[in-house]
Structure to design on (561 residues):
């Protein structure tokens, strides 16, 4: 037997076409024991054809065993000179051609070694193979991302649910303990006191917070203030426009003619018009009614709003008392409101539950609940420093100023006054302890309620030219805040009382003076001929000493400010 190998030679065929028959041996299986082509030739995308001539196993028909072959290098199923159904052809002793796929010699599966396999393919097969690999890679990446995302979300959901459940359980336990203690204390007090606010809380089926709210809300009011704000134009000229603000108040007392309401000084400071809305009234309508009254389009004391007057203020403690004439309050409203029951803020403990009620955002009475976070806090504002405040996490929003902070017996323990306004701070509100505020409120309640003097020619006059003190000057020279006396007009009220140039007026009739505009505004409530006490700070040996002088106000002469 003789074998002849011709590399790179185009196979011959009797009908003139190229053939790419399958290489077979005597058993009809593909040959695998042939020598592999050189590696540099295998790297080219070509199909190799080999001429093979053998006389072994040739029968009379001139064909080898299983001598089926393909007539095209593109691996089509068309057979040379044979029917398309079978794909086989028997020929006489003509040369036979076979197509070989060069590969390593086949071994048993357990004896195969890892190695590099070279597969011969054309350009189309190469590109499709790369596309499949790229597609598989992208698909696997997408699947991995989806699976990882689902796992991440599942872990978060499970952990959030677990921790949230634990947190809710802890808070619920704390509320239960507080409620039990409050109910026990209230039961004892109601036994001694009989009917009252504590009995109302115990009888409430909605819970202790609801009981406190329903018992205390008749004592809380909504306050609407209108003040004049000066806005300067592009050319430097100033124009005044009415500005409306909202706040809260607490009914703390009464006299024969008035209902007395405690609030914050900053709620009523600079107000030209005040109105009060009691429980059961529409606060939004009351505010609109107040604005219409200021604009000359209506009157107060018609619907929900009742006019109020400032009785006294204390800027140092941010406290104020306003008064409402009882005759202006409808009988139905009078039957629903009541005076707040005062508690003792000195008995407060950190962690004690509290309830805050106020006119949040000007929408009307709003109830929030929280805990005493800390005691004796100090807060610095733009114009003052407030000390010994109660810190709570009960929500205190704009409009809550002057509202009530209550213990779980429904007693007033604080007057809400401020909160920390910052995107990075939550649950930090402050209230003035009632034990600290009570003596100041009592002094303000005993003051005379004043109206603005309607006749401008009869408004009290001091005869002083004032100037404002800057913060820098106050800090640099250790000066008290107040209205600085630039000049004293001879023969006028201040000159007659002994007030001198460079003095600083710090208080007028017990009310703190902060600026030139402040003292002029306060004088509008006093008539010419009235005697008032004025506190004056005078520089003596490098230090300011305060003294009190009695001044008889004079009438404003023509042409003087």
């Amino acid at each position: 037997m003789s074998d002849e190998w011709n590399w790179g030679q185009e196979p011959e065929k009797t009908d003139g076409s190229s053939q790419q028959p399958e290489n077979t041996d005597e058993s009809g299986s593909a040959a695998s024991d042939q020598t592999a082509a050189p590696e540099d030739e295998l790297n080219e995308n070509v199909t190799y054809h080999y001429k093979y001539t053998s006389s072994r196993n040739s029968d009379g028909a001139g064909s080898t065993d299983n001598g089926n072959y393909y007539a095209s290098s593109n691996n089509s199923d068309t057979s040379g000179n044979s029917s398309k159904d079978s794909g086989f052809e028997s020929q006489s002793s003509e040369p036979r051609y076979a197509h070989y796929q060069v590969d390593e010699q086949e071994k048993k599966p357990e004896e195969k070694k890892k190695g590099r396999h070279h597969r011969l393919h054309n350009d189309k097969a190469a590109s499709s193979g790369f596309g499949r690999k790229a597609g598989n890679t992208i698909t696997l990446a997408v699947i991995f991302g989806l699976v990882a995302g689902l796992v991440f979300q599942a872990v978060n959901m499970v952990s959030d649910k677990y921790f949230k459940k634990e947190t809710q359980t802890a808070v619920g336990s704390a509320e239960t303990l507080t409620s039990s203690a409050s109910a026990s204390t209230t039961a004892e007090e109601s036994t001694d006191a009989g009917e009252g606010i504590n009995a109302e809380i115990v009888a409430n089926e909605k819970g202790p917070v609801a009981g406190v709210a329903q018992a205390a809300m008749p004592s809380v009011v909504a306050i609407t203030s209108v003040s004049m704000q000066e806005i300067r134009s592009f050319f430097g000229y100033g124009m005044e426009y009415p500005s409306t603000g909202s706040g809260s108040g607490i009914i703390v007392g009464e006299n024969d003619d008035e209902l007395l309401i405690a609030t914050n000084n900053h709620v009523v400071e600079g107000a030209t018009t005040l109105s009060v809305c009691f429980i059961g009234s529409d606060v939004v309508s009351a505010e609109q009614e107040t604005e219409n009254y200021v604009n000359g389009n209506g009157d107060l004391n018609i619907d929900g709003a009742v006019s109020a007057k400032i009785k006294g203020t204390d800027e140092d403690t941010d406290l104020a008392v306003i008064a409402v004439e009882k005759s202006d309050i409808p009988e139905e409203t009078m039957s629903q409101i009541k005076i707040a029951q005062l508690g003792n803020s000195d008995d407060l403990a950190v962690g004690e539950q509290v309830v805050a009620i106020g006119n949040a955002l000007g929408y009307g009475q709003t109830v929030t609940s929280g805990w005493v976070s800390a005691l004796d806090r100090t807060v610095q504002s733009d114009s003052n420093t407030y000390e010994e405040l109660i810190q709570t996490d009960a929500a205190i929003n704009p409009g809550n100023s002057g509202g009530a902070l209550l213990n779980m017996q429904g007693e007033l323990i604080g007057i809400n006054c401020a909160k920390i306004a910052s995107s990075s701070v939550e649950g930090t509100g402050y209230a003035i302890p009632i034990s600290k505020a009570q003596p100041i409120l009592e002094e303000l309640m005993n003051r005379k309620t004043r109206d603005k003097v309607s006749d401008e020619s009869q408004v009290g006059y001091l005869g002083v030219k004032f100037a404002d003190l800057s913060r820098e000057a106050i800090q640099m020279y250790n000066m008290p805040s107040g209205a600085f006396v630039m000049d004293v007009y001879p023969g006028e009220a201040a000159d007659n009382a002994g007030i001198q140039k460079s003095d600083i007026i710090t208080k007028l009739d017990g009310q703190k003076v902060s600026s030139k505009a402040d003292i002029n505004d306060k004088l509008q409530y006093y008539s010419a001929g009235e005697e008032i006490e004025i506190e004056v700070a005078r520089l003596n040996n490098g230090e300011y000493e305060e003294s009190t002088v009695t001044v008889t106000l004079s009438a404003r002469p023509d042409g003087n400010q």
In short: Residues 1-126, 162-195 have pLDDT under 50 and may be disordered.
